[in-house]
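Below is our example:

___
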Amino acid sequence: MKFKNILLTILFLTIPYSLIPNPSFAQQVSLSLSPPLLELFIKPGKAIMVAYKLDNLGDPTFLNLKILPFEAKDNLGNIRIKPEFEGPVRFSLDNTDLTLDQPFFLKTNYSQQILLRIRIPENITDGDYYYSLLAETTPPTASEGIGSARAKATIGSNILVTISNSGNIDIKPKIALFSTRGGLTLGQNIKVFDSSDKIPVVLTVVNKGKNMMKPEGQISLKGNFGETIKYDIISKNILAESERLLEATPSATINCDQGREQKCLFSTTLILSGFFIGKYNLSTEIRFGENSPTIFASTIFYAFPFKIAGGILLATVIIIFIIKRKNE
């Protein structure tokens, strides 16, 4: 009996230690790469060297540098990185201790200068070529008996290369959509809103040319009394043969908490805020620099105080009902 008690005591003391999990170490990843964007206009047969700075603000890590092409993913400015390298542009590193696709070690709070050489071969067809310089962490192999969170992160800097023998560029813009969203549609493209509504405006532009372009211009709102408000279009790159939703400022905001607003279901260029009554004209004028076409578009909408009128009507009915009951 005494031996049995000793055995139970030993088991009681050892079991808790066996239930303690192995230590797990999560790697802290924080990287910075500058410049974040490079726009290069160059002729065939030329080369250029660009200096990048890579900062490691997290834990020590192994990093791998690579160049991959990308394309437009949607009309919101997002991109899709292609899995394999393609295109005529040639890339190499001028660093003596670095090579593309070869891992290197970077300590915490250390910086690494990256000397990227970009070379354009002769006899290249004019056009745009888009790439990203990617710095990707290479997770360490987990040690035996120790759990390791294999954190992996990638940071990139986009490289927009425009190749032109003559120095000219091919820009062919077209407005794909310029309209208000929401409201009540009557007849053909007649939009009606309540006077107190916030009115979303959508403006998308298609680039049918071989080179990227940057739009500049305004969206103008003209009321039925001749009052005019102008909103500046934010200049952002539209890649060759792609479509992009433009943005304008200043703009109102919509409360999208819990997704109750229908207007939160789509992206907008501009949200008009105020108290509107009557007919309004919306127009836009977009430019793309010297020797480039200017494009125009316009649309109209109507606004009436339906909510106020409904409230007044309801109040009138209630008052009449109360008066009739009193008279009775």
User: Anything to note?
Assistant: Residues 173-254+261-310 form a domain with the Immunoglobulin-like fold (CATH 2.60.40.10).
